[in-house]
């Protein structure tokens, strides 16, 4: 007797060829409405699901394969005599292969202007039920849900390589498929921020050569429905594939530059911290500022620019070694100059704002922390002057610039900036005074230090940072405030005659 294969495919790519190959291997194909029509039109001698169920498809296709004669055929354990006796008592034939791909729920909800009705109708019920049934009974049944697996199955069939490992692999793939499908539906229905069961859906972009270090394995995944402003939507024009560390750094740089959409801006970043940020009226000047901020650290850095890269800027960048350059576009001449280096990665990306509804996840041993993003953009209007000396208008602008930079620097974070560029970045020290010393030490020799301000991502636990900064020529400081020793810092600012401003908001980045 012929074996039964049930084919029910929304995406009908390759389905006719596959069905013909099954027929040639002594399968009788059973199929649902649209799939059946396609198969019959193309010469496959398929039979309708209704011929098995003796029950007409109903409710606009909501019920087609949801029938005991189908599910018993899939679920019966072939080595269980009771199951097999029950099947034959009902005259039900076992179904040995289930090939299903689902209604396009994701593509439907991504369509602009999609209605709720359309979305709901694109929730597949019968398909996942068959996939799950076949996957549960994978020791006896082959379950295929990916168009790309058809040929592999046929090859294995011919080579007699349909071992239990392969059956299990397909079963796991089917369960992952239905789990991911359901997760998207649940998110669509409520988009709860912190649901009791966190079911995130990510799709593999690629396996990576290695992870953070060469002895670590890694892969890159993107959100099933990825945020618009994201590296996942970037286009690589030149250079070898991004590494694990490249992706993290590039992502960090994209977050920084999103603070400065209104002016040509260049962010240079190394090891997750900005080493130079410049904003100016044109990209070339912005590049020069970012470069001058730290001409040593920028070597091998990640550069993000928020305007089209022109020839002059490209020539400057070309003169040093850079890992990655990301911009909205490159002029042809700029591209030609930069692409002379084989290894530099050139990437284009449409700039935009960071998704306000997005979340950041970080794994901990045995768990994960989820939070919404620190998208608080600092403005002078948020600040409260707590010293006797008032900051000048330029200093206020610089204090806001500094706060918007320091929030992207690893804590304890201190930056010294003007109102357009960073001069010194003190990142990731275990105490605040060390970060202060590093930032000032880097900034002091630079042009513009006479106008520099200092910004801190969190409050000063004592007055030592204010004292150190003031004694090294800093005239205005911004910090969130909130320490029980705030008054000591205020007194020190007053004693040394500088401006101290509280922003009221901490910007830790661990
Ligand atoms: N309702 C059912 O019993 C049912 N059985 C299979 N489907 C889906 O119907 C689609 C194929 O339909 P058609 O062959 O009519 O084009 C597949 O995506 C399959 O997953 C169903 N549709 C939705 O639930």
Automatic annotation (TrEMBL):
Keywords in alphabetical order: Hydrolase, Multifunctional enzyme, Purine biosynthesis, Transferase
MGS-like domain segment(s): 1-145
Gene name in the database record: purH
Protein name, UniProt field: Bifunctional purine biosynthesis protein PurH
CDD domains (UniProt xref): IMPCH
GO molecular function ontology, one term from the record: phosphoribosylaminoimidazolecarboxamide formyltransferase activity
Pathway membership: Purine metabolism; IMP biosynthesis via de novo pathway; 5-formamido-1-(5-phospho-D-ribosyl)imidazole-4-carboxamide from 5-amino-1-(5-phospho-D-ribosyl)imidazole-4-carboxamide (10-formyl THF route): step 1/1; Purine metabolism; IMP biosynthesis via de novo pathway; IMP from 5-formamido-1-(5-phospho-D-ribosyl)imidazole-4-carboxamide: step 1/1
Domain notes for this protein: The IMP cyclohydrolase activity resides in the N-terminal region.
Reaction(s) catalysed (UniProt annotation): (6R)-10-formyltetrahydrofolate + 5-amino-1-(5-phospho-beta-D-ribosyl)imidazole-4-carboxamide = 5-formamido-1-(5-phospho-D-ribosyl)imidazole-4-carboxamide + (6S)-5,6,7,8-tetrahydrofolate; IMP + H2O = 5-formamido-1-(5-phospho-D-ribosyl)imidazole-4-carboxamide
Family as reported in the entry's similarity comment: Belongs to the PurH family.
SMART domains recorded: AICARFT_IMPCHas (SM00798), MGS (SM00851)
Pfam assignment, any one: AICARFT_IMPCHas
InterPro entries linked: AICAR_Tfase_dup_dom_sf, Cytidine_deaminase-like, MGS-like_dom, MGS-like_dom_sf, PurH-like
Keyword Hydrolase assigned: yes
Source organism (scientific name): Apilactobacillus micheneri
EC code(s) of this entry: 2.1.2.3, 3.5.4.10
């Amino acid at each position: 007797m012929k074996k039964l294969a049930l084919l029910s495919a929304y995406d009908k790519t390759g389905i006719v060829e596959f069905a013909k190959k099954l027929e040639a291997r002594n399968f009788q194909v059973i199929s649902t409405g649209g799939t059946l029509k396609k198969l019959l039109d193309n010469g496959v001698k398929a039979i309708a699901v209704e011929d098995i169920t003796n029950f007409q498809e109903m409710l606009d296709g909501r019920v087609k394969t949801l029938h005991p004669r189908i599910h018993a055929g899939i679920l019966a354990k072939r080595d269980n005599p009771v199951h097999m006796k029950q099947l034959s008592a009902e005259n039900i034939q076992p179904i040995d292969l289930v090939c299903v791909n689902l209604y396009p729920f994701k593509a439907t909800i991504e369509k602009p202007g999609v209605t709720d009705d359309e979305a709901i109708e694109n929730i597949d019920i019968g398909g996942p039920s068959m996939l799950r049934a076949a996957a549960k009974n994978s020791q006896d049944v082959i379950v295929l849900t990916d168009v790309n697996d058809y040929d592999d199955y046929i090859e294995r069939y011919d080579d007699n390589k349909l071992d239990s490992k392969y059956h299990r692999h397909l079963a796991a793939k089917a369960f992952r498929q239905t789990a991911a499908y359901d997760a998207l539906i649940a998110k669509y229905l409520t988009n709860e921020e912190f649901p009791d069961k966190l079911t995130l859906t990510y799709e593999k972009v690629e396996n990576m050569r290695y992870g953070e270090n060469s002895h670590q394995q890694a892969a890159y995944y993107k959100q099933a429905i990825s945020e618009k402003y994201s590296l996942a939507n970037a286009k690589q024009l030149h250079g070898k594939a991004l590494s694990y560390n490249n992706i993290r750094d590039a992502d960090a740089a994209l977050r920084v530059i999103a603070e400065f959409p209104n002016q040509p801006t260049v962010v240079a970043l190394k090891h997750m911290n900005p080493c130079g940020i410049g904003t100016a009226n044109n990209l070339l000047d912005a590049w020069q500022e970012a470069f001058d901020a730290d001409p040593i650290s920028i070597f091998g850095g990640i550069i993000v620019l928020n305007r089209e890269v022109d020839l002059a800027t490209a020539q400057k960048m070309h003169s040093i070694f850079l890992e990655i350059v990301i911009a909205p576009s490159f002029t042809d001449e700029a591209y030609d100059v930069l692409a002379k280096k084989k290894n530099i990665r050139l990437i284009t990306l449409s700039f935009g704002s960071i998704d306000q509804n997005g979340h950041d996840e970080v794994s901990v041993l045995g768990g994960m922390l989820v939070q919404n993003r620190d998208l608080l953009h600092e403005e002078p209007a948020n600040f409260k002057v707590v010293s006797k000396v008032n900051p000048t208008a330029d200093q206020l602008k610089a204090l806001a610039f500094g706060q918007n930079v320091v929030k992207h620097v690893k804590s304890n974070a201190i930056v010294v900036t003007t109102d357009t560029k960073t001069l010194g970045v003190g990142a990731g020290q275990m105490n605040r005074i060390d970060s202060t010393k590093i930032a000032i030490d880097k900034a002091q020799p630079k042009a513009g230090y006479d106008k520099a301000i200092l910004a801190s991502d969190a409050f000063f636990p004592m007055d030592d940072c204010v004292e150190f900064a003031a004694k090294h020529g800093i005239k205005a400081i911004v910090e969130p405030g909130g320490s029980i020793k705030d008054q000591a810092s205020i007194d020190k600012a007053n004693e040394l005659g500088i401006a101290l401003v509280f922003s009221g908001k901490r910007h830790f980045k661990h």
